[in-house]
Design goal:
By secondary structure, this protein is of the alpha/beta class. It folds into five domains: 178 residues; 82 residues, no CATH class; 141 residues, Glutaredoxin, CATH 3.40.30; 78 residues, Helicase, Ruva Protein, domain 3; 113 residues, FHIPEP family, domain 4 (Rossmann fold), CATH 3.40.50.12790. The protein has 26 helices and 14 strands. Keywords: Bacterial flagellum biogenesis, Bacterial flagellum protein export, Cell membrane, Cell projection, Cilium, Flagellum, Membrane, Protein transport, Transmembrane, Transmembrane helix, Transport. This is Flagellar biosynthesis protein FlhA. Belongs to the FHIPEP (flagella/HR/invasion proteins export pore) family.
Length: 685
């Protein structure tokens, strides 16, 4: 782990060493291949990030890769001049492939690549970085004022405002760093040209004077080595320059570049249709390659008409919905909103909302024979039986702005999760014990993040024979929705839901409710306790036990989080049943030194108690825990950490920001009849 933390520093030291220490041809070939690989990875990263801050280390990577290329250039020059042009197989292969026996043509191709890299891509990226940095810095005061206004108006809290200020600061620093970092690429291009001429001229002179070869032999040897060396350095430089231009020209988006291009470039089918007919008209020009033109034109026309047909289908569905509303007696939209009271209806936010691309509409439309609504009803019933709350109705909408196969899950109007479904396929999940592999479209299961494949119906039986877990598309969507609801259950539980829950309890135990609320705890305080339980996956179905525990302890305990701990201990049978398996529970324990360190770091103020552990100790504990989770991941599906009662609440809060899926329990929350099996222990050593 320590080596991985210092790998960049070690790599930079090695790069400096390459400048001084002669490298053998075999090792130099390996370094060239690593250089090309890193360049390809950086280019792909710039295409898949949603905004520049997701790749904020790019300016530093630009410096490291430039230094790496220059170090390899120096090492290759040393070999070319001392080994009669023999500097490894990579350089020789690149040089021979480009020259093809013609030195002049080869040099011209090489110079064109250098000029394109230097004058077009690098200069453009440098200018864009300079302008972007200037605009970002000029816009900072206005953005800061907007954040302060939102904070003063109560639209955001202090933590959100602090995060936004940090993002603005990081964004300005990033573009400022990019403005300077592009100079590295520019200098690298100039250095490559100089090194290329040094290799060729100096190599030719050395070959004639010291080698005793003919001029023609020397020219062939050193031209291959020079052009090969130049190409090996310029190819990664071209990739890095393209990545530089890519990241400084990307606007903030909610998806990758590929998804943005497919969504925006193909959003107007008429453009593709007109382009196809324009290509067909070129066939009337004498001498034009008609077969090639017809192939491209046919592809454009087919794609254009196909997209237009799908858009018309989505529009027809929208028209059908509007017609249904009109038949129900809804007035014209303009007349309807003339009444200002109707505008307030627009301010209502659906608690749970799902939006679908047009290809997924038949999957959830009852008129198309879908059982999606029935599945939602079944899930709502099961969730109420398991967790003790009733989830609100799920609003379903179609969204033409989404990809055809994409769906989005929103909580209180904001997107929290999304996924893509292939309607005519099945999802084959890899459980880890396959007896064979099957061909399919690689993907990640949206609910649990399991590697999987989309397979056709004819491969379903074979996939099951190989050990895959095969799921139909509708089940994928329902499962994803259910897991999302479980994750955000504490946000879905409103005071109105609590009021309905208490009214139900009053039918059998009105005395208990009246005794606790508001004498022992306020209505809002009870909601906070229940939300604390739901946030960590503890069911609240046993409301009588919860209210009795609050009644017994609320008079002496004012801290709602501590009161929640007493409730958790009273629900030990529920907690034991939920996380035990076959009468035993496998856990990760904390060493006594770790617990002692946490206890000694507990501080208290007017608002309550909190953990004031220093960042170094926090990082060390979390790192050790992650090591333990990695070691036992085959033995336990959900990491469960067992602590003492005093430590549980603080350790759970600390772990939440690093590993939110982990479960933290205390000894007092487990039944005495359950067998506890410790599979790992977190220590400070």
């Amino acid at each position: 782990m320590r080596i991985l933390n210092n790998i960049v520093a070690i790599f930079v030291i090695l790069i400096v060493g390459f400048i001084i220490i002669p490298l053998p041809p075999f090792l130099l070939d390996m370094m060239f291949i690593i250089n090309i690989t890193i360049s390809v990875m950086i280019l792909l990263m710039t295409m898949y990030v949603k905004d520049a801050l997701q790749f904020s280390i790019f300016p530093s990577m630009l410096l490291i890769t430039t230094l790496f290329r220059l170090a390899l250039n120096i090492s290759s020059t040393r070999l070319i001049l001392t080994q009669s042009g023999k500097a490894g197989q990579v350089i020789e292969t690149f040089g021979s492939f480009v020259l093809r026996g013609n030195v002049i043509v080869g040099f011209i191709i090489f110079l064109i690549i250098v000029i394109v890299n230097f004058l077009v891509i690098t200069k453009g990226a440098e200018r864009v970085s300079e302008v972007s940095a200037r605009f970002k810095l000029d816009a900072m005061p206005g953005k800061q004022m907007a954040i302060d206004a939102d904070l003063s108006g109560g639209l955001i809290d202090e933590s959100t405002a602090r995060q936004r200020r940090q993002d603005i600061q990081r964004e300005a620093e990033f573009y400022g760093a990019m403005d300077g970092a592009t100079k590295f690429v520019k200098g690298d291009a100039i250095a490559s040209i100089i090194i290329t001429f040094i290799n060729f001229i100096a190599g030719t002179v050395i070959g004639m004077v010291q080698g005793g070869s003919t001029f023609q032999d020397v020219l062939n040897i050193y031209s291959i080595a020079t052009v090969g060396d130049g190409l090996v350095s310029q190819l990664p430089a071209l990739l890095i320059s393209t990545a530089t231009g890519m990241i400084v020209t990307r606007a903030a988006s909610d998806s990758s570049l590929s998804m943005d291009v497919s969504r925006q470039f193909f959003s107007h089918p008429i453009v593709m249709i007109i382009s196809g007919f324009t290509l067909v008209s070129l066939c009337f020009i004498p001498g034009m390659p008609i077969p090639q033109i017809l192939i491209v034109a046919a592809g454009m026309l087919f794609a254009g008409f196909n997209l237009r047909k799908k858009n018309e289908l989505a529009a027809a569905v929208a028209v059908k919905t509007e017609a249904a509303h009109a038949a129900a007696g809804q007035p014209d939209e303009t007349d309807y909103f003339k009444n200002i009271d109707n505008i307030y209806d627009l301010l209502k936010i659906d608690v749970i909302e799902m939006e679908f691309g047009y290809s997924l509409i038949p999957l959830v439309d009852e008129n198309s024979g879908s059982s999606f609504i029935e599945r939602l009803v079944t899930f709502r019933k099961q969730f109420a039986m398991e967790m003790g709350i009733v989830i609100p109705a799920v609003r379903l909408r179609d969204n033409g702005m989404l990809n055809p196969n994409q769906y989005v899950i929103k909580i209180k109007g904001e997107e929290v999760s999304c996924g893509e479904i292939l309607v005519d396929y099945y999802l084959a999940l890899d459980p880890g014990n396959l007896t064979g592999t099957i061909d399919g479209i690689e993907t990640i299961e949206p609910a649990y993040g399991i590697p999987s494949k989309w397979i056709t119906k004819d491969k379903k039986e074979m996939a099951e024979i190989y050990g895959y877990t095969v799921i139909d598309p509708l089940s994928v969507v329902v499962t994803h929705l259910s897991e999302t609801v479980k994750k955000y259950a504490h946000e879905l539980f409103s005071r109105q839901d609590l009021n309905q829950l208490l009214e139900t309890i009053k039918k059998t135990g009105s005395t208990l409710v009246d005794d606790v609320i508001p004498n022992q705890i306020s209505f809002g305080g009870l909601q906070k306790v229940l939300c604390n339980l739901l946030k960590e996956g503890v069911p609240i179905r046993d409301m009588e036990t919860i209210l009795e525990t609050i009644s017994d302890n609320a008079s002496t305990v004012r801290d709602l989080e501590v009161l929640t701990e007493y409730v958790r201990q009273a629900l030990k049978r529920t907690i034991t049943r939920k996380w035990s398996d076959g009468g035993q529970i496998r856990v990760i324990t904390l060493d006594s030194e770790v617990e002692r360190l946490i206890i000694n770091s507990i501080s208290k103020n007017d608002q309550g108690t909190y953990l004031s552990l220093d960042p170094q100790s926090t990082q060390k504990i979390v790192s050790k825990l992650m090591d333990c989770i990695t070691k036992v991941k085959d033995a336990i599906n959900i990491p469960i950490v067992l602590t003492s009662p005093l430590v549980r609440i603080y350790f759970s809060k600390m772990l939440e920001q690093f590993y939110p899926n982990a479960v933290v329990l205390s000894f007092n929350e487990l039944n005495s009849n359950v067998q506890i099996q410790a599979v790992a222990n977190v220590t400070l050593e």
